[in-house]
Amino acid sequence: MSAATLGHVLQGVGVGRRAVVGPVAQVRPAPHLEPDAPLLVDGVPADAATVHAAVEAAFADVATALRDQSARSAGTVKDVLAATAQMADDRALRTQVLARIDGGEPVVSAIDAVVSTFAAMFEQAGGYLAERVTDLRSVRDRVVARAMGLPAPGVPELTRPSVVVAKDLAPADTAALDLANVLAIVTELGGPTGHTAIIAGQLGLPCIVRVTGATSIPDGTPVAVDAANGTVTTDPDTALRAELDRRAAVEVALESDTAPGGTADGRPVALVANIGTAEDAARVSGGAVEGVGLFRTEVLFLERASAPTADEQTAVYARALTSFGTRKVVVRTLDAGADKPLGFATQPDEENPALGVRGYRLVRTHPELLDTQLTALARAQTETGTTPWVMAPMIATAAEARAFAARARAAGVATVGVMIEVPAAALRAREILAEVDFVSLGTNDLAQYTMATDRLRGELADLLDPWQPAVLDLVDATARAGIEAHKPVGVCGESAADPVLALVLVGLGVTSLSMSAGAVPAVRYALRNHSTAECATMAASALAAPSAADARAAVVDLVHPDVREMLGV
Fold first, then answer.
1. How far apart are CA 207 and CA 212, in angstroms?
2. Which of 222, 324, 335, 476 sits between 20 and 30 A of 79, alpha carbons compared?
3. Does residue 126 have a pLDDT over 80?
4. Which has the closest alpha carbon to 381: 334, 321, 437?
């Protein structure tokens, strides 16, 4: 029997906390054709000119369709679709395919060969390019289907609320979902920081990736998708359905609490949101968040032929700042390179991009990018009458922190900080805090560099667990340095969204937690029901544990029983 036998529980990596029950809607697979399959016209193999024209038209049609979808979308979805459209419109890709076809190679064979070459290049580059292999193969599938006159692969038309299941879901497919009829997304491949997971989070959909056996579940089979626990249960029984209904009611109840974050004994802990665009700012500013803890400005730069001007950037930053009024907005300067390459700045010959010229290090090769951005942020500060907190990513030394602070202050930025993502920075947090006004821990990258594990490799998710004792040791070192310096230390990685781990972070001395807006209510509730002393006890237990699993188990045992029941932990 397959792994998806009725009544079975399939395990994956969950994104978010929500849970739903609904019927499966399997995504149409890519067309499977023999490499030498001919393109037929009225049942007869087409001549060379017709084949050439059909393939060229297929590329153009796919690119146009993706651009149209991008135009109808917003935020991250819009940018990802635009990037995928650029792939379909890539001159090198199209030229190489047509050259093979003109040389007599069959359509499918020609497209497969060229796409495989590009995919190998992307995978070798690693990081962001490796993650885009899914997008590249989506373009391949769409072009083959279009050229050969077959139905387009992807999500079927949904006539009822359903759980969309796929081997992997391309961003174009995710963006095209009928949200009125999508309950959740489940994939067999991908990672928790991949495009599908990011877009699902933006759309507010529970998502579970790396679920082996998911595509074996028959269409229409009812499943319970529990993102908090990373499980997909086929044919859930009455008891499980009732539990998930209870949890949904709890989420609604928690959302009604809009008070500032803090512990039971009154220690304030700012609960702020992660955003990527000015549109995101407008969307979440009306909710119960106390500001922004991470504004990922690289969205402005990605998939452009040249950097945005100071005027363009000023307008975007001013809109975001205006959305939050007097509330704190922490802006991260350009974090490009590694998994977010820029065509106009990233060095193409880096063997290890994640260890190369990324983030603040771009000042070594393209100082004008940072200077323009700082100028724009200072202008937005003046225009809005607010004071953004501006921080640099990928800082490794106190000297780098000092140089960034001097540059930012010279531009007119009033409040300056840096990211702690590199173990060296965490170990020297005291020296770094002497140079800046605040620091923010990016626990996703901190885990990646501490555990020597690519954060985009879903199969290594256990090593990237933010509960890893080595990662917590570095968070502890940074937080203690902040306490000694009397300066804020925030966390803006995924760990902040875990209500149990949030208790540990506060116990270590973290002063603010930044997360997706939907995660705030549960974190607020957990903090509200535990004192500062209890959080400190939990932190000590986590630091003393020998493994990530043991750390979490030890802390869960210390969480108040009523909170465990309320949050389902």
1. 14
2. 324
3. no
4. 321
